[in-house]
Amino acid sequence: MATKNIEIGELKQIAKKVRYNVVKMVGLAESGHPGGSLSATDIIVALYYKLMNHDPKNPNKEDRDRFVLSKGHCCPALYAVLAELGYFDEDELWKLRKTGALLQGHPSIKTPGIEANTGSLGHGFSVAVGMALGCRLDKLDNHVYVLLGDGECQEGQVWEAAMAASHYKLDNLIGFVDRNRLQIDGCTEDVMCLGDLKEKFKAFGWDVFEIDGHNFEQIIETVEKAKSMKNGKPKMIIANTVKGKGVSFMENNVGFHGKAPNKEELEQALKELS
Prior knowledge:
- By secondary structure, this protein is of the alpha/beta class.
- The chain is built from nine helices and seven strands.
- α1 runs antiparallel to α2 and α2 packs parallel to α3.
- It is globular.
- The relative contact order is 0.17.
């Protein structure tokens, strides 16, 4: 359903509304992960509105593109996009994390539009590799997209998956690393230095790009280029982002990795995003 002719200005407005809904749902839930959801918003909006082949009215169509949110704790951004597109009613957003609600703190395939249960970091990347291999075996002309956190790249399973994707020559797999440089315990380089992620993925046999993860032109141009490269190599896009993007007091503030805004903070954040 991606609207190929949608303008950049429209994408920016959609992203602003998505951020508003992310902050609102996490605030109402009094629980969740706003920082990484806000840093990932522009990537997810670009994929679903401009780049991916998908259909909210037929979410299981065989030749659809798949998206796996490997950094599953940042599902509020994905939920807000799926609701905006009509995969489920927007009212579900305001029940986030409630007992028995459709939308929980990590993605579940019980939710329309969700392709994989994720949350344990590193697992979603491996699932995406398997999906890409399965799609190729089924001779489907599609792509599998996966979004990782940079802190997630400290997990050994990430590099096992990277090695497997290269071994099986999965050029239908396009990954993103949300490189906001913060994780639950602080700066990624202080917790466990990641070094040069670009060179690391190259060493594992991937084509690698580096972009501004909040620049829609760069996101779109890079994904289109990656899709066109049928060279037997999976693709990874290192997206430099700002944790908490769009809310002044959340930007680059590790305290909002996994903390909901209080009543006063919620009011201020929603005002900034209005």
